[in-house]
Amino acid sequence: MDRGWYFRFALVLGLVVYAWLVFWPSLEGTSASPPEWVTNTFQRRIALGLDIQGGLRLMYEVEVDQAVEDRRDLRAQQMLERLCERFEICSEDEHTTDQIEETRERVSMTSIERDGFRVTFTDASDLASLDRDLVNLFGDIVETRRTADSISFTMDNDAMQRLREQAVEQARETVSERIDGLGLREAGVMAREENVVVELPGATEEQFDQIRSVISRTARLEFKVVDDEATFLADLTDIPDGISRGQETVSAGEEHPSVQSTYLTASGEDARTRLQDYIESLVAAGTIPEGREVLVGEADLGYDEEELEEELEDGEEPEAVQEVWRTYTVHSRADVTGDAIADAMVTNDPQDGNPYVAITFDSSGADAFERLTGANVRRRMAIVLDDRVETAPVIQSRIGGGRASITLGRSGAYQTMLNEASDLVVVLRAGALPAPIRPANEQLIGPSLGADAVEEGVLGGAIGVLLVLLFMGLYYQVGGLIADFAVLLNLLFLLAILAAFEATLTLPGIAGITLTIGMAVDANVLINERIRDEMRLGKAPSTAVALGYDRAFTSIFDSQLTTFIAGVVLFQYGTGPIRGFAVTLMIGIVTSLFTSVFCTKVVFEWLVRGLRVRKLPVG
Q1: The domain that contains 286 carries what CATH number?
Q2: pTM for the full model?
Q3: DSSP strands (E only) in 51-187
Q4: Residue 446 three-state SS
Q5: 316 pLDDT higher than 70
Q6: Cβ–Cβ < 8 Å for 380, 228
Q7: Beta strand 504-505 with 47-48: parallel, antiparallel or unpaired?
Q8: pLDDT digits over 261-276, tens only?
Q9: Last residue of a domain, which of 159, 194, 210?
Q10: Domain assignment of residue 420, yes or no
Q11: Which CATH number is 463's domain given?
C-alpha cells in the first residue's frame, strides 16, 4: 500500500469519528445517550420540527399601511426641517424644538388620507422656497396639486409598493432576531405575502404568553420634549365621565422654572382605553395644536407589591389596586429614536435596587441626545415606548456620553420587573418593527398531532433503506456490502452536518434523507457496473477498480449536479416544508459524492492492493 492510501484512510476514519461525536448529542434522552464530556464539548443538536414534536404556530399580519403613514409623516417632518433651513431659522446640522416651532408659524403640514400631506404657507410669497430641488431630495413623493399658498404631495406608487414589501421582510428579520434573543434558535420564521409565520417546535403553553408578547411588541422608542406650557387641555369644557382634569407644578425651562401644567387622568380597568379614545376624539375635532401629541402613561401609585404582601397577615388577600393613567402633552417631533441605540442591558438602581434598562447610543445618537438635552435644560423629557410614556424626568443639564435609562414605571415585585426589563432588552436590541403586527392565527399544537404520520414516515423510510441495503448486498456481493457501508456513512455525515447547523428536522426533511440514500446507492450501482464490465474484459482487479471509478465519475457527477440545481431552485422559491426538503437534499448530494466516490474507493483499494485479492465479487 502506498502512503497516499494511509492518508486517505486516516482522513475517512477521522471524519467518521468526528461526525459521530457531532451527531451523538442529538440522541440525548434515548437509550444511546452520550456521556457528559461529549455533550459539554459538542453542544449543537438537531431540533425536531413542529410536525414531529408539536409546539406553537403563530401567524401575524403586518400592518403595511401604517408603514406608509409613518413614511409620509417622516417626509413631512423632513420637509419642515428643510424649510426651516431655507428660512434661515435653523442651521443645516441642528434643528431645535424652538426653531421648528418658529418655522410652524410660517408653514403648516396637514395629512391627506394615508399617503399624502399638504404644505400650507402663511405668507404666499414663501411658497417659492419649496422648489423642485428640495422635493427631489426625497425621491419617493410627487406633487399632486398646487394653489396660491399650498402644495399637496403624495407617495409615489412604486415607492409605496417597495415600502410594503420591505416592511414585511424587515418584520420577518426583526421577529427572527427577537426569537434568537430568547434562545429559541430552532424556530422558523417565514414571510408570506403580508404575513409573518412563526413556528416554534417544542414550545410549551407556559412559554406562550412571553413569546407572543416579545414577538408582537412594536418597540418604537422615542425621546420627546414635554410641552408643560400648553393650555388647550385647561380650556376643555365637555370632559366625559370617568376622566378628570388635574394640575401639577413643574419646570418648563430655565426661564420658566415653575408653571402649572394641565393633564387628564382616569382610573379603573379600562382607564387607558377611555383616555386614548377621548384623545382620538380631540384629534378628530382639531383640538390638539399642530406639532403636539397627547400621550398616556401609567401613574406611579407609590407602593411596592412585595412590601404590600409582607404587611398582609397570613391568609389575607390583597385588595385589587386600580390602574391609574394620565396624559402628557409632548412635541410630536422626536429628536432621538430607538434607531440610534447601539446596545441595551438590564442593571439595578443603586438607590432602591430595582432593575432598569440602560441604553447606549451610537455616535450619531449620542450627539443628537446631547443636543436635545442641552437645548431643553429644566424641561421634562418623555421616554416613549410604543406610544406609551414610560417616564418623564426633568433634564437637569446637558447629558453627554451617549447613555440613557428606562425605568419600569411603578414599583412592583422584583422578579416581575426583572422579567419585563429582560424582555425589553431583547426587543430593543433586535430593533423596532417597521410597522405594527397583529395576530391573524395562533395555534398551540400538541406533540400527539401527526404522531401516526411521523411513525409511518420513519417506518417507511427505515424499511426502504433496509430493502436497498439487502438488495445491494445480495446482488453485488462484496461490492454491494461496500455500497452499504457508503450508505451508512452518508447517513452519518448528513445527520452530523444537520446537527452542526442546528437544523430542524421535519417530515419533508426525513423524505429528503430517504431520497438521498437512494441517490447514494445509484452512484454505487454505476461504479460496481463499471468495475464488473472491466473485469469481464479480463482486467486485473486493481486495474478494473481504477478504470471503473474513472469512467463512472462523469455520469455520477452530472446526475448529482442536476439534482443539486433542482434543490437550489426549491430552496430559493419554496417555503417552509419545501425548503426543509431542499436543504437535506442538497447536503445529502454533497455527502453522497464524498462517500460513494472517495470512501468506497479507499475500501476497494485495500482489497485489491492490500489484500491482493485475485477475484473481486461484484455480482
Answers
A1: 3.30.1360
A2: 0.63
A3: 55-62, 107-112, 116-121, 141-146, 150-155
A4: coil
A5: no
A6: yes
A7: parallel
A8: 999 999 988 899 999 9
A9: 159
A10: no
A11: 1.20.1640.10
